[in-house]
Write a structure and sequence with these properties.
Structural class: mainly alpha
Low-confidence stretches: none
Distance between the termini: 66 Å
Helix content: 40-55%
Largest sheet: 2 strands, antiparallel
Order of helices and strands: EEHHEEHHHH
Mean pLDDT: 82
Number of helices: 6
Radius of gyration: 25 Å
Number of strands: 4
Shape: elongated
Strand order of the largest sheet: 1-2
Amino acid sequence: MRTCGQCGNLDKRKNPPCKVGLPCYKSEKTGEYIRPNKCKKKALKAKISRQMAIKNARNRAIDAFQMWVRYRDNWTCVVCGKHIDPDQEGAKHLMHAGHYISRKYKSLLMDPKNCNSQCRLCNWKQNLEGVDERYTKYVIDKYGVSILDYYNKKKNEIKKISSYEWAELANYWENELKEIIDKRK
């Protein structure tokens, strides 16, 4: 038996009811039963709520990761050496988690080797003028010259992260952040 292309109801009658209780109508082009607009709106709302859940998990993961980077580097800029007190009001906005390779490369977005704490000024300069020589020197001193090859290989990888993976990453980085804060106390 054929089923409705939108709601999945079996085509037992000419006009089967939709999941919401409204009758589907038959498309002239395809011959399949299609949901009325009210059902489409309800499905769209459900899709938007799923997208918001993914966005919230993504934001939680990125925020926790960036805060972890700040604590890992002791709230000190790796480029100019400026230190920010984490208890200071607005400290999160004064010290950034600066990426050596841009955030647009998703495979390096939350790579701890690609992200280091930078003061707001050094991070903005890097975004406008390119990577500072001091940042390159810091990265090479910390990870070795082979890190530049690692970045070039890794940035060309295609990485798609599902909603489940974003939630897992959020939990992982929140736990790592909690551990590093607990060690400091």
